[in-house]
Design brief:
The chain is mostly helical. It has a domain at 28-70. Helices cover 33% and strands 6% of the residues. It has helices at 8-18, 54-65; strands at residues 48-49, 52-53. A two-stranded antiparallel ribbon has the order 1-2. Residues 7-20 have a biased composition (Basic and acidic residues). Residues 1-25 are annotated as: Disordered. GO terms for molecular function: N-acylneuraminate cytidylyltransferase activity. It holds the Pfam family CTP_transf_3.
Length: 70
């Protein structure tokens, strides 16, 4: 009989099947740092670019990525 190596996904599947109480949902939060001070362009994060503040483009990209739930 040949022993099969169990990968990380096999272990998780076994743990979930054994005890549903151990199941935890993982939350992923995004932290977007936007400094207001800049020597080149003061308050650049709130300056409009194509009618949207610069920080708005970053926020929209994070939301559209689908990787974050908070």
């Amino acid at each position: 009989m040949i022993a099969q190596k169990r990968g990380p996904s096999d272990k998780n599947a076994t743990e979930e099947a054994e005890s549903p109480k151990k199941r935890r949902t993982r939350h992923v939060a995004a932290l977007i740092l936007a400094r207001g001070g800049s020597k080149g362009i003061p308050l650049k994060n709130i300056k409009l670019l194509a009618g949207v503040p610069l920080v708005g483009w970053v926020l929209r990209a994070a939301i559209d990525s689908g990787e974050f739930d908070r």
